[in-house]
Structures are given as structure tokens and as C-alpha cells.
Amino acid sequence: MTSVVPPEPVPKGLLTVIVPMPPSYRGGTEEYAYQVARFYSEKRPVHILTTSARWDGGEHALSVGSATLERLNAREIMERPILSGGAAKARLKEAVETAGVVQLHMPFPWVERNVTRWAQRARVPMVLTYHMDAEFGRSPTGLVARTVTGAYRSISAVPALRRCSVVVSNSMGYARASPVLSRFLPQVRVIYQGIDFERLQAADAKAAEAIPNRKPGVARVVFVGRLVPYKGLPDLVRAVAQLVRSGRSVELLVGGKGPQLPELRQLVSQLGLDSTVTFLGFVPDGAVGKLYSEADVVACPSISLLESTPITLIEAMAFGTPVVGTTLPGTEESVPNDGVRGRLVGVHDVDALARALGELIDRGRPANPPPARTWRDTATDYLALFDELERSRGPR
Description:
- By secondary structure, the protein is of the alpha/beta class.
- It has 14 helices and 15 strands.
- 38% of the residues lie in helices and 17% in strands.
């Protein structure tokens, strides 16, 4: 009888992670990218390549664990980091060609096109994590922005998706609805995002001083995130105005910073809500958990596919706080529309948004929130995918 000799295991090479923004910048993509990289580094060597855009190295930078971090020269064009200089491109090419497996978080204009080409030629497994359908500029409906967005998708995003080994989405609903990703569904794997519940629970007394004390008899609605148009904040402000006009005692706390702040302040003043709406600015990690815990409702009424799944809604549910989102595909797959833990409303439906806020305020916080999926869970799923791709490739 002939014995079958199992194949030699493929040695795990360097995991190279490519992220547009450095860990001192706090956005959904960065939270995702650096959290999973931190857990990757517990299992295998990890090298992160990012850019110098918006780097400040301050105290609020995200941890990368034992991974190494390298910043490449870049400049911002239409609020997106673009590598500058031949040296940065050459260094990135070298890092890709010597990697064991590459994960790139997109959108990363023009970089993703080159990285997937280099990886394909070097037979390096390439995983793209697709966060959103990128649009460019502060007025994405303008002619210049629409032209640049179309050019980016056809010249960079689509070629990258054609060449990658696997593209990961936060939800299959989002992948099917995306005008770009829907063309590549056979390559799509769904890996759900997680949260860092322990970090959010670790209260920082000094940071928490920025959170106003609760007012007796006043319901608290909270938003946490970047102040950008696709988050739908004007709709939330108008919905809170409806609640106030109906005689409810309610306040809105807005945690975060971003380019839409002047517009939002103006809207608040126009609606006579200066004593109702408080802009907190950036909320440190040590205060976010307190913000969620003391909220009656956390809302993020996103209005476009620039948002796949608002992570703040998932975080808030882990604290037992009911949430309100919109009927975008990724949110529908992640947030229950049961009137207890959550409620979903149509995009730009301010009346329905106001009703949902009022309904959840009246019902109160649900008991016994379900266990939250963590970033370690997400990283574990990715590591299994990387191992699978390396085994299928075999030795080079």
C-alpha cells in the first residue's frame, strides 16, 4: 500500500498591509485597518505602509501592536492621499514584490492599480479590502468631481479589482448595490467588521470631562463620526428640530470633526437649536464609551454608498444603546430593524427619522445586549483567508 506524503507546508511570509492614511488620523478605514493589523502581528510578521498625509504622531494615534510602520511621502489632492516622488513608488513596489501576502485598503487612488499589477507579476497573493465607492471633492456632484471620480474608477479601481486574488466587503448587500463592486461578485468574500469593546470601556476620567452631564428629563441623542456630507447630519439636525417642535425635551450631542462643521452650525442656528445641539469636537477613546452609555439613542442617518456600515452603530449596540440608521445595504445587514435594538429609515426621510428617534427614546434601552464581534474575530477570519491563498499559491 502506497503511503501518501502530505505536502510541505508553505512558510508564512511577511504580511504587508497598505493603508492610505497613517494611524494618527481617525476614520473608519483607519480604525479597521490598524485594529486588524495589530492582531495580525500577534501571529506573524507584519509591515504596514502608509502615507505622510495628515500625520501628527500625537497621543491619540492608533496602536499597531508589534507591526512595523513605514510612511511614504504623499500629498493630498481632492482630500485623497497621492504618493509623491519616484522614491515612494519604488519603495512600495519593492515591499509588494518581497511580501508573502498583501492586503490593501481601498480606495487608495492610483496606488491600488500599481500594487495589484506588481503583486500579480510577482505571484504574491493580493487581498483588497473595499471600504466604499470613492467620490472626490467636497461637492461630489460637481462636474470636475464627477469627472475625476469616473476616471479614478475606470483607471485605478476597476483594474485593481480585476487583478486581485480576493476582494473583501463588509456585507454582501453592499457589494451587490455598489456600481463598482457588483461587477466582481465572484471575487467577493464577506468578512464582517468588529469593534474594540475593551478600549471603549476603558474610561478616562479626564477625557470624559468633555461629555456634558445629563439634564434631568432631557432625552439624549448622540452622533459620533466625521462631519462629512455622506453621514446625513443635516437630516439628523432637522429630525431633532421636529422632536423639539412636538414638545419633547431632547438634546443632540455631535462628537467628531470635519469639513461640514460650519454648515451644520449655520443650520442649527437657523432652526433655533443653539441650546439643543452641542458640538463636542473630537472625542477621545476614553470618553466614547461614556458617550454611548449615557445616550438614549445613537444615530447615523447615512445617505450614500460612501458608507458601507457605520461602525458607531455597532459600537453603540454593544453598550446596549438603541440605534437609528438608514436602509443602505450594509447597514441593513448589520443593524436590526426591530424597534428595540434598532430602527432603519429611508434615506433623507426626516419625518421617519424623527419618529424612529422618538419611538426608541420612549421604549428605553434594551436589556442584555448580544456579545459584540471584535476586531480579533475579524483579524482571525482574515488570517485564515491569507493562509488559504498562500497554500493555493504554493512555493514561488
